[in-house]
Amino acid sequence: MALYQYTALTPEGRRRIGMVNADSIEIAKERLRKQQILVTKLVSYAKKGDQLTLSPSLLIGFTRDLHVLLRAGLPLYDSLIILEEKYRRTKLHPIFLDLCDQVKEGHLFSEALKDYPKIFDPIYLSMIRAGEESGSLEQSFYELEKLIGREQALRKKLSSAMIYPTFLASFCLIVIGVLLFFLIPSMSELFEERALHPMTRGVLSLSHFLNQHAFSLLSMVVGIGGIFLFLIRHPKGKKKMKELLLHVPIVKRLFIETVMARFCSVFSILFRGGITMIECLRLSKKVMKHPSFEEIVTKAEKKVLEGKRLSEEFEKSPLIPTLVVRMLAVSEESGRVAEMMHHLSEIYEEDIERSLNRLTSFIQPVMLLMLGVVVAVILLAVLLPLTDVSSILK
Predict the structure, then answer these.
(1) Cα–Cα distance between 247 and 245 in angstroms, integer?
(2) H or E stretch including 64?
(3) What SS3 class is residue 285?
(4) DSSP code of 255?
């Protein structure tokens, strides 16, 4: 579908600007005619509905605002009209205009949201649909606000944890580069026609090689980097990379904690919203973002359909932590699966923070030690011949 922006005249003679979502401009005109809107101008919007995207913060704001207005007792259409004015200068504005029109026509809100798949994912749509069916749409928005907020907080934790190691690695490379590309070449004349220590000869040879072939080496690094990026963006390459990470001890634990935190958080919210366990599994596995774990849940989903318990199927996989299996088994007996999954998500979110702290505290001294060793070797290689020169002068 495509978005069309229209200009129309109200019965009072005022100009009105709005948006309509339709497969063609003719269908858009027909849709507006049925609403008895006197259109004076109708043009295609810059982006199609299925191409529009939103930042997580804007989506949280949208969800929170609708929750607050619905909680205050306002009907959905009136809530959308109020928010349309608030978000008039944002990317959400054309979406609000279209949603207002669709709700006014009598379409379900979940059906209207389907036109924007890059903004409202299947989990979001399922929660809204469940809220519409149960008459608890306000509660659905509340749960979605918490879910999106927790996912954003998790992403921030993971990205911020990598900022310092990345900065430290860049600093190390810059220091080593300055020494090899500038300091050593500027002092090479001092070492000519002298018997040099093997360490000094090695450093001088390395510096000379790097300076002579700098462009070729840079091209090779860029090429290898480009190939690597291409491979990890390709579905098969990305899958292989994620599988390899599970064999790195220091990363494996963090990876499992992140996957389980996402899965348990989404599952608990969906299950609490009245969605069936099969549908919860189908939707929750999409946030795991790891083929090995998705395969585990897919197999479990089939077995649950046959009448098996979820905990029994999870127990067969070595990747699913024992804590999840045992707590899930207990909750299946007591009938408190949603509550237990929520508790598990909180446990794993705390574990992620501890694992990130351990990882960064391990990386920092290792990188500093490596930098210290490299710099010490280079400086020692430079100073050894200079001490010989000073002894001769004396």
Answers:
(1) 5
(2) helix 56-71
(3) helix
(4) H
